[in-house]
Design goal:
305 residues, alpha/beta, Rossmann fold, Alpha-Beta Plaits, 2 domains, four-stranded antiparallel sheet, 36% helix, elongated, binds adenosine-5'-triphosphate, transport, ATP binding, ATP hydrolysis activity, ABC_transporter-like_ATP-bd, AAA+_ATPase
Length: 305
Amino acid sequence: MTTISVDRVSRWFGNVVAVNDVTMTIGPGVTGLLGPNGAGKSTLLHMMGGFLAPSTGTVTLDGAATWRNEDIYNHIGLVPEREAMYDFLTGREFVVANAELFGLPNAGFAAQTAIDTVQMEYAADRKIATYSKGMRQRVKMASALVHNPSVLLLDEPFNGMDPRQRMHLMDLLRKMGAEGRTVLFSSHILEEVEQLAHHIEVMVAGRHAASGDYRQIRRLMVDRPHRYTVRSGDNRALASALIADDSTAGIELDLRDGVLHIQAIDFVGFTRRLPQVARERGIRLYEVSPTDESLESVFTYLVGA
Ligand SMILES: Nc1ncnc2c1ncn2[C@@H]1O[C@H](COP(=O)(O)OP(=O)(O)OP(=O)(O)O)[C@@H](O)[C@H]1O
């Protein structure tokens, strides 16, 4: 079982709409679920895993509903972002307990295999209380893998990991995707997602905002209008030269702060032309800073796209 279909799914909590009429299909391989905090990623992952009921719509795994379907748990592993861990247990005891919950015939062996997969053997017999965030993450991952699921859902799995741990987890997820499993992980960092996922689904404010490979998603983000604040040796002369250039759509001369506010329509063109124009006219550039580079504004643009 490997294909998850989300069909017109919404989920609300009181009057907060966490997921708003989302439709998407996730197949084998590694897919990234990208979106800023509060976008509804965790809520969607929990519904996919059968841990939360949709308010409306359906989530199915190869045609079988994930909600109120016990059999589904045998095929899905969920690594939640926040989870109460049993600090008084060792990592191994925690993974074995999960294997037993799944009713696996040889829980000890299954746990050992999962612990080896996440390379935690060296600390498996230490109490979870002594683990770093990255180590906890790997033990959670081992518990989610203990029953060898065909679908793996991970909520912000790279949070709190150092670069080496991150690389190791990326390799592991790549391997699982190559084996034909369906791996879906959420993140709010585009660079993280594009390093790992060929396919990206973007969520913003509960809505499904974009879908495609990382080149398409990056292009959407780069091609949007950009605003810059520029301070130069002669703002008025620079403004008059730049407004004649195709890369800009509007320029405001801010006399109070001594800067230009520039609306660029062609991101690549503008960043290439600005220094050329300044050089041609002998104008010194003292400051060039993007004013709306926050991830929030990038996503807001995508929603409107
Ligand atoms: N159990 C809940 N009760 C009330 N509101 C909730 C609940 N779970 C989520 N929400 C709200 O739903 C919205 C989406 O939250 P969700 O955690 O799914 O987003 P997210 O994209 O995973 O963000 P984050 O990365 O910050 O966890 C938020 O506004 C959140 O406050």
